[in-house]
Write a structure and sequence with these properties.
CATH superfamily of the largest domain: Periplasmic binding protein-like II
Oligomer: single chain
Strand order of the largest sheet: 4-3-5-12-6
Number of strands: 12
CATH class of the largest domain: Alpha Beta
Number of domains: 3
Shape: elongated
CATH architecture of the largest domain: 3-Layer(aba) Sandwich
Radius of gyration: 23 Å
Order of helices and strands: HHHEEHEHEHEEEHEEHEEHEHH
Helix content: 40-55%
Length: 295
């Protein structure tokens, strides 16, 4: 069991060095445990990468099988001991701050009955980790995920272009600069690819941010415009900005989807009820954030 857990940890982090967090003693322990698994299964499970080791294809497959096995045992033990359930949820920084954190922080269930761990994860990483079951639930902005992953819609939203009046005197001027792709922008590159709104994918923004929240902060300086979801705008003095709704071809609508691996529900019967609870509460929160949202 300890050897399989070690393999799962190395598989989750991608290498022994990262799993051991630079601790030479733990690196040696992981290497020894994986070598013992190789002797038992008679197949190479790790290969040299620089100064460290990473899992082979066979190693990754055994780690995946072991993860399911260990998760099933953990859920069985928790059920036998009437222990609380624990869930890992991955989402982008903006969704986490605006919707997920307020919901989970307001959870009033008895201490220890349900525990959550939030992680900032975006794009393909959410999909990959749902397949690996290193995430129980993930929030994505597209419904087309690879099988067997499943999704439920939490809400739809559009982009709104906020332009400081100091930057453009009129909304017409702002629209012209946007159309010509010459408007000075703060761009949330991890949460919105330029190609998603018709900008050249190799276009270099005036200020590259990671998240919509960072773009919102940059907008407050009033030297740059910013694309933000319709539920997120300037925190104050909104009259100092032009708020432009983008054409549907460029501005959405986009969707938030809660995604999960159906194998999770087979391993943990409680997960279905937790999924339904999250969908209901998060969908209500998204709808409340912008009641005028697209339907």
């Amino acid at each position: 069991m300890d050897r399989l857990r070690a393999l799962v940890e190395v598989g989750s982090f991608g290498s022994i060095v990262r799993a051991a967090e630079g601790d030479p003693t733990r690196q040696s322990q992981y290497s020894r445990q994986i070598k013992e698994l190789e002797d038992f299964f008679r197949v190479p499970l790790a290969e040299r990468q620089g100064k460290g080791l990473r899992l082979t294809v066979a190693g990754k497959e055994l780690a995946r099988i072991s993860r399911f096995f260990l998760l099933g045992l953990s859920n069985f033990q928790g059920g036998c001991l009437a222990e609380g359930q624990s869930y890992a949820i991955g989402a982008g920084a903006t969704f986490t701050a605006v919707f997920l954190l307020p919901l989970l922080a307001g959870n009033r269930e008895p201490r220890g009955r349900v525990r959550f761990r939030m992680e900032t994860v975006v794009g393909d990483d959410v999909e990959r980790r749902l397949h690996d079951l290193t995430l129980d639930f993930g929030v994505v902005t597209r419904a087309a995920l690879s099988r067997p992953l499943q999704t439920r819609t939490l809400g739809r939203w559009r982009l709104r272009l906020w332009v400081p009046r100091k930057l453009c005197r009129t909304a017409l001027e702002a629209k012209r600069l946007w159309a010509s792709r010459t408007l000075s922008l703060a761009w949330p590159l991890r949460e919105l690819a330029p190609s998603e709104v018709g900008w050249p994918p190799d276009s270099e923004p005036d200020l590259g941010c990671e998240t919509f929240l960072e773009a919102q902060r940059a907008l407050a300086g009033q030297g740059l415009a910013a694309l933000l979801p319709d539920f997120l705008g300037p925190e104050r003095d909104r009259e100092q900005y032009h708020a432009l709704d983008l054409a549907e071809a460029e501005g959405g609508p986009f969707e938030y989807q809660l995604a999960w691996n159906p194998r999770l529900l087979r391993l943990n019967p409680h997960a279905g009820r937790r999924r339904d609870h999250l969908v209901e509460r998060l969908a209500a929160a998204v709808a409340l954030a912008h009641p005028e949202a697209v339907r």
